[in-house]
Amino acid sequence: MFKKISLTLLCLFAINTFQANTLKINTENDNFIGKKKIDFGVSESDAEIWINGKLLGKGNLEIVVPSKGCITVIVRKVGFLIEQIDFCNKKGMAKPPKTYYMQLIRDDAFDASIQTDIANVDIELKCSISKDKAWKLINQIILSNIDVIEMTDKETGYLRTAWSLKTFKQNTIRTRIIVKQTSDNPLVFKVKLISEESRRSMTSVKSDELYSEWDRILRSYSNVIPELQARIK
Fold first, then answer.
1. CATH code of residue 85
2. Residue 223 and residue 116 share a domain
3. pTM exceeds 0.90 for this model
4. Handedness of CA 41, 44, 47, 53 (dihedral sign)
5. How do beta strands 70-76 and 48-51 pair?
6. For the chain, what is the domain count?
């Protein structure tokens, strides 16, 4: 009699344990069965929302995270830092939220610069003064903006500054000035304000392959060309 009761209790215990484990597994799986939807919002209503490399909307968008998968969301707007976030719908990882709000941050490089049509182009300076006086003024004006001259030759009228580097949160800007004499009579110089960006922070000034022309210039150099045009004539 005692053996029958023990055997019955053992069977009931085994059944209950199996059912509990099965329920636990099913509950875990239920959390990750099917796609998950997220009501995704951005502080800037016209900011672009890119999902896995594709532009799918602006400002506010219902995004879908596939079952057992992940997505990468990138938000872009001119004048703001690029933001990126990943959402995954996989067992063992945090479940995607039902809503998500992204606050964009101003781009410090953009705010410290201006868009211009004088960056990376030759600007002609026609001089009515002597070469000695013009050359002295050119050096004074340039040294007041970039204090290291890498190469200078008064005879040929060539001057090149060293790169001036400025690092921002998501960008590095390097700037230099090049002056070339193109004519003796009349006396003419060409000046180029070179402005380049790397689109990443803390880029070495020597990493030429990482830089490309930027159609903006830092505000600290915005008066160089106008001052040369006004005084070297």
1. 2.60.40.3070
2. yes
3. no
4. negative
5. antiparallel
6. 2
CA 73 to the chain's CA centroid: 15
Q: Is the pLDDT of residue 14 over 80?
A: no
The whole-angstrom separation of Cα 187 and Cα 189 is: 7
Single-letter amino acid code for the residue at 76: R
Instruction: Provide the residue type at 121 as one letter.
Output: V
Asked whether residue 14 is domain-assigned, the answer is no
Indicate if the pLDDT at residue 12 is higher than 80.
no
- Tell me which residue of 25, 28, 34, 30 sits closest to 68, measured CA to CA: 34
Per residue in 131-180, pLDDT (tens digit) is: 999 999 999 999 999 999 999 999 999 999 999 999 999 999 999 999 99
Q: What is the percent of the chain where pLDDT is above 70?
A: 86
Q: What pLDDT is attached to residue 189? A: 97
* Cβ burial 15-43 (10 Å sphere, 16+ → b, else e): eeeeeeeeeeeeeeeeebeeebebebbbe
Range of the domain at 85: 36-106
Identify whether 97 is preceded by a cis peptide bond (ω within 30 of 0): no
Look at residue 199 and tell me if it is in a domain. Answer: yes
Considering the domain architecture, whether residues 120 and 203 belong to the same structural domain is answered as: yes
50 Cα distance to chain centroid: 15
> Does 226 lie in the same domain as 136?
yes
Q: State the DSSP code for 208.
A: G
